[in-house]
Amino acid sequence: MSSSKYMENSPIDVIRTVKQSAMNHWQSLLPACGVDVPAKGKHGACPICGGTDRFHFIDDNHHGDWHCRQCDQPNHGDGLDLV
């Protein structure tokens, strides 16, 4: 999609397009954006609060889903929330 096409869409449409394009690719996209994620099913350092063993990359629905046992709000989200 060209940049002029993005300009024609509302911001929410652009976000939807980005999320749709990123589905099934979050495990490689997040590190490319500077966000270290543990292997699926493992715990690691949280990129939000900095805790060393409380972040869990779930991604069962291919949206980059994650959860942190320490963060207050938000303590979970999707891949776009991390970038």
UniProtKB/TrEMBL annotation:
Keywords from the UniProt entry: ATP-binding, Helicase, Hydrolase, Nucleotide-binding
Database matches in InterPro entries: Phage_T7_Gp4_N
UniProt domain DNA primase/helicase Gp4 N-terminal Bacteriophage T7-like: residue ranges: 41-80
GO MF annotation terms: helicase activity; zinc ion binding
SUPFAM superfamilies registered for this protein in UniProt: Zinc beta-ribbon
UniProt entry tagged with the keyword Plastid: no
Domain of life: Bacteria
Pfam families the record matches: Zn_Ribbon_Prim
Name of this protein: Putative DNA primase/helicase
